[in-house]
């Protein structure tokens, strides 16, 4: 029997988007296992044969201290070497919303390919510029980046829901370095794809309107909005209006995100 593209979806206390994530991956053709973080910490060998590890959205550990901090430190201190080897061996890691926050805390975005050393962080996801929880639909645009499965120039609607999603860098040099290495994967934009100009398009006030980031290899990706919440046509708040104007959508645009991701996965044995 041919080896399947196997995905591990991690859960722990407070993660609440795991079911939607599993559904999106299965619909895209992946074989999915829902795994508790503690099980992976105890048995890192669970990574063997997996093509993808996903950290879904939610409020891990109640987001005590800071969003994603505890989960991220568990990865940083308990699995950093194993995850580094997993990525360098061709495996992919994805974090959505809280999962993105977790990955930022883990240091995987700033790791030098081939190294198991995690450098000090120079990036963060901090409080929204509005100083409140923002829950609304936004538009994302794919950038030409190291994650070559991201469709450069494609614009799609996706819901967001977070209080600490504003992407910031330690200094201008850090932002320049991220851009130079092709690590900016997704940006907030207007519906027509033109640059975001204010909080109506970039609700959390992220630096350079960055909504998604990848590492230098393109195998680790994180984004704040939730593509797993736009899998079906009726997930969009204006789906009936779109139909009235003759716009038929066979699936939600978010499903296309997962379809492209799974199609790009290697089969690791």
Keywords:
269 residues; alpha/beta; 8 helices
Itemize the secondary structure elements and their pairings.
Elements: E1 6-11, H1 18-27, E2 31-36, H2 37-42, E3 52-55, H3 69-78, H4 80-88, E4 92-96, H5 98-106, E5 123-126, E6 134-142, E7 155-162, E8 166-169, H6 172-180, E9 184-189, E10 210-214, E11 220-223, H7 239-244, H8 253-264
Parallel strand pairs: 1-2, 1-3, 3-4, 4-11
Antiparallel strand pairs: 5-8, 6-7, 6-9, 9-10, 10-11
Helix pairs in contact: 3-5
Give the averaged pLDDT, no decimals. 94
Q: What is the subunit organization of this protein?
A: single chain
The dominant shape is globular
CATH fold field value:
Rossmann fold
Give the amount of beta strand, in percent. Answer: 15-25%
**Largest sheet properties:** 9 strands, mixed
Number of helices: 8
CATH class: Alpha Beta
- The portion of residues assigned to helices is 25-40%
**Strand pairing plus helix content: what structural class?**
alpha/beta
Instruction: Please report the total strand number as a whole number.
Output: 11
- Low-pLDDT stretches are none
Instruction: Supply the number of structural domains.
Output: 1
Q: What's the helix-strand series? A: EHEHEHHEHEEEEHEEEHH
CATH architecture: 3-Layer(aba) Sandwich
Could you name the CATH homologous superfamily?
Class I glutamine amidotransferase (GATase) domain
Q: What is the C-alpha radius of gyration, as a whole number of Å?
A: 17 Å
The end-to-end span amounts to: 13 Å
């Amino acid at each position: 029997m041919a080896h399947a593209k196997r995905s591990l979806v991690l859960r722990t206390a407070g993660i609440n988007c795991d079911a939607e994530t599993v559904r999106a991956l299965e619909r895209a053709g992946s074989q999915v296992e829902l795994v508790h973080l503690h099980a992976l910490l105890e048995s890192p060998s669970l990574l063997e044969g997996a093509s993808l590890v996903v950290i879904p959205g939610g409020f891990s550990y109640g987001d005590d201290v800071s969003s994603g901090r505890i989960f991220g430190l568990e990865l940083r201190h308990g699995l950093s070497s194993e995850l580094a080897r997993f990525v360098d061996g061709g495996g992919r890691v994805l974090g959505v919303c809280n999962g993105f926050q977790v990955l930022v805390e883990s240091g995987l975005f700033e790791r030098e390919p081939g190294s198991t050393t995690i450098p000090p962080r120079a990036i963060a996801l901090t409080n929204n510029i509005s100083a409140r929880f923002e829950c609304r639909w936004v538009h994302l645009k794919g950038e030409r980046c190291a994650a070559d499965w991201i469709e450069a120039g494609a614009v799609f609607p996706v819901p967001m829901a977070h209080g600490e999603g504003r992407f910031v860098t330690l200094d201008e040099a850090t932002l320049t370095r991220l851009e130079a290495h092709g690590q900016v994967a997704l940006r907030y934009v207007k519906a027509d794809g033109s640059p975001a100009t204010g909080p109506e398009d970039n609700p959390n006030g992220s630096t350079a309107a960055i909504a998604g980031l990848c590492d230098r290899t393109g195998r680790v990706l994180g984004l704040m909005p939730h593509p797993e919440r736009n899998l079906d046509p009726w997930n969009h708040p204006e789906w009936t209006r779109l139909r009235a104007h003759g716009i038929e959508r066979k699936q939600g645009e978010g499903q296309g995100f997962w379809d492209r991701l799974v199609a790009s996965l290697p089969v690791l044995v």
